Amino acid sequence: MIDAWRKTCKQAYAPLAPKVDRATIRNQKKKIKQLEVKLRRKEKALAEAAALLVLQKKVRDLWEEPKDEK
């Protein structure tokens, strides 16, 4: 009976899950911010490239010789 009580008490005071180190959390947050900055930069570059392609096509269409349609 005492052994069962002791076991119950030990389980009650045992941590539910291992605690994550604060330094680990800080490093993960820092890495997330770096990745977000990198993603934003790549999204801007992609948008710029898409805009340049659209403008390039418009200029090409504007200066292109009209085709004879029959």
What best-fitting shape do the alpha-carbon axes yield? rod-shaped
Structural class: mainly alpha
Roughly how many Å apart are the termini?
102 Å
In the predicted model, the low-confidence regions spanning at least 5 consecutive residues are none
User: How is the main sheet built?
Assistant: none
Q: Work out the radius of gyration.
A: 31 Å
Number of strands: 0
What's the pLDDT, averaged over the residues?
A: 88
Overall helicity: over 70%
- SSE run: HH
Number of helices: 2
Strand content: under 5%
Description:
The structure is a single chain. With 70 residues, the protein is mainly α. It has a domain at 24-63. 77% of the residues lie in helices and 0% in strands. The longest helix has 42 residues, at 22-63. The mean pLDDT is 88.
What would a concise description of this structure say?
The chain has 70 residues and is mainly α. It has two helices and no strands. The mean pLDDT is 88.
Features:
single chain; 70 residues; mainly alpha; 2 helices; 77% helix; 0% strand; rod-shaped
Which SSEs are present, and which pair or pack?
Blueprint: H1 2-13, H2 22-63
